[in-house]
Structures are given as C-alpha cells and as structure tokens.
Amino acid sequence: MKKVLNLLIGLPVALVLLTMAIANRHPVRLVLDPFHPENPSLSLTLPFYVYLLGGLIAGVALGGIATWFNQGRWRHAANLRTREARRWQSEAERLARERDESATREKAAKGETVRQLAVGGRR
Fold first, then answer.
1. How far is CA 5 from CA 1, 12, 14, in A?
2. Where are the domains of the chain?
3. I want to staple 21 with a disulfide (CB 3.0 to 4.6 A). Which of 2, 10, 49, 58 is the partner?
4. What's this model's pTM, rounded to 2 decimal places?
C-alpha cells in the first residue's frame, strides 16, 4: 500500500519537475556579491532548472537532517530500552541456568540417598 501511495505521489511530482526543467533551460546569473551587483566578483550562470532542483535537493536534505535531530531522543530511549531488555534477558537466562543446576543437584542428591539406602539395606 505504501509503495502504491509513493508511486501515486512521486510520479506526478517527478513529471512536474521534469516539465519545469525542460521549460526553464535558459541561463540565469546568480550574483553572490551584494556590494557590486553590476560587476560581481563572484557569480554563477547556470540553467534555471539547476537552481530549482538544487533548492529541492537542499530542502530534502535539510528536512532529513532536522528530522534526524528531532528524533534523537527517541533513538536514545530505544537504545536505552534495548540495553535494559538485554540485561533482563541475560539475568533471566542466568536464573534459569541456576535453577536447572539446582534441580540437577537435588536429583543427584536424592539418587545418592536412594542408592545409599539400597546398598545399606542389603547388608
């Protein structure tokens, strides 16, 4: 369902971006020198769609970074809970081993007692 929804949204967006890229092929000069706009020392001339797609990519990247930072507390809580669960799991396994060893010792002790009674009864 999620793949279909992504396809239904992603395909039209891709077609719109492709159409804009084809329609906006003329070069545009980006001036990065605010003090001398008529004779800039730093400018960039690229097709307009490069700026559009660059802005889109930058927006997606910045949104991803912001989301990653906002979700940091949840990742931290998940890691904490995972460590706690592993600790309790190892504690449960240790107690189960101790219980099994104790039961084995008790059975062995009862077996010795029965054996001693059997041996002692024959005499």
1. 6, 12, 14
2. 1-33
3. 49
4. 0.56
